[in-house]
Amino acid sequence: xxxxVESGGGLVQAGGFLRLSxxxxxxxxxxxVMGWYRQAPGKERELVALISSGGNINYADSVKDRFTIxxxxxxxxxxxxxxxxxxxxxxVYYCKAHIVGGPSGYNYWGQGTRVTVSS
Length: 119
Hints:
Blueprint: E1 4-7, E2 10-13, E3 18-24, E4 33-39, E5 46-52, E6 57-59, E7 67-72, E8 77-82, E9 91-99, E10 106-109, E11 113-118
Parallel strand pairs: 2-11
Antiparallel strand pairs: 1-3, 3-8, 4-5, 4-9, 5-6, 7-8, 9-10, 9-11
């Protein structure tokens, strides 16, 4: 199992920036993929960015060139640097850990951190 704790959300004006953190309770090298997802009011949860244990990275098209996912393996923490924020980035942001195993693997979620971007 793994526990995830997100932090760093808040209220920011359009064009501003925030950095989200996701601290894992175990080595992130033991987690196959870590990712950031978000859920806006009335919408489904969607992928924002992923980073694999091997360092491969993927972004949603809507955040490419504005958001950066990174990690600090010594702190077992994954970050999401969000620049040039837009009102449409307003959502609750969740960290997810995926571990390969069993029929479909194991997914663990953090409690979420709210990001509000004002226009």
